[in-house]
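ok trying again, last paste got cut off:
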Amino acid sequence: MSVPVLDDLKHRYHRTWWALVLRALLGLAVGVFILLRPLDSVAAFALVIALWALFSGMVDIVHAVELAKVLKHWWILLVAGLVGVGFGVVALIYYPAVSLAFAVLVAAWWLLVTGLLAIYAAYRLKKLGLSWGWTGAAGVVAVVASGFALFVPPITLAAIMAIIAVYAIVSGIVLIVGAFRLRSLVRA
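nice, full thing came through this time. structure:
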């Protein structure tokens, strides 16, 4: 990189490093809020799921209508949009039960599918004469966890919220460190 380009990058980072700090503080605030107010957080999570489905469905419908003249299978996007809007409306009407049930089902299916894939991978590794034990064990644990997730939804929701909280806090810390490193880079 030439020196003028590097200087221009430094100047731009100097002007915008604070945006990373704001994003970091938001992440920290969300993580701490989830840890301090878990029930409120679950309620907000349910609302976000419903509103996201509604919004995403509307955007898909608009895209489908816009693409109808140029895309042969535009109707697939339309159906996806209608399903999203339908789910969003139902999730808002039966708030928070439908959204939370959806979150639990997605978590359980994800655990089941990844667990079965890990078990299959372990089987293939064993056939190749490679180390397969940890992969197989992780697959079995994931499959068992998927059943647990379905039969104990409150713990599943608590785990989902804990993962979101930890991610928000860790990413907030990383962003703060990165922002101040960028700031010190600019001053160097």
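cool. Residues 28 and 98 are 28 Å apart (CA to CA). The chain is about 90% helix and 0% strand.
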